[in-house]
Design a protein that fits this description.
By secondary structure, the chain is α+β, with helices and mostly antiparallel strands. The protein has 5 helices and 3 strands. 0% of the residues are buried.
Length: 98
C-alpha cells in the first residue's frame, strides 16, 4: 500500500486514479496520520460482500488452482505441484511486465 498526502493526490489525481483502478492501494495521510484509503471499485465491492459471497469466491479460486494443478500434471506428470506452478507463472508474468 502506497502512502500519499492530499497534496500528492491533487497534483497527480489522474495518474493515481489509473493506478488505483489497476489494483494499487493508497493510504492518504495528513500530518503522518491516515485519513482515507483509495482502492479500486473491485476491491471496494469485496469489502462489502457478505460471508457467503466471500466463501464462494474462495471456493472458485481453489477450484481454479486445482484445475491448474491437474493441467500441469497432464502436461508434465513429474512436474511441479499447483502452488509451485502458480508462483512460476506469476514470476514469468512479472518479468514480462516488469
Amino acid at each position: 500500500m502506497r502512502v500519499i498526502t492530499p497534496l500528492d493526490l491533487r497534483r497527480s489525481l489522474g495518474k493515481i486514479l489509473d493506478q488505483a483502478s489497476a489494483g494499487e492501494r493508497f493510504v492518504i495521510e495528513r500530518d503522518h496520520r491516515p485519513i482515507a484509503a483509495l482502492i479500486s471499485v473491485e476491491d471496494g465491492r469485496r469489502l462489502d460482500e457478505g460471508p457467503e459471497a466471500r466463501r464462494q469466491r474462495r471456493v472458485r479460486a481453489l477450484d481454479r488452482l486445482a484445475m491448474l494443478g491437474d493441467r500441469m500434471l497432464e502436461v508434465q506428470p513429474d512436474g511441479p505441484d499447483a502452488v509451485t506452478a502458480v508462483r512460476s507463472d506469476r514470476r514469468r508474468h512479472d518479468a514480462r511486465n516488469g
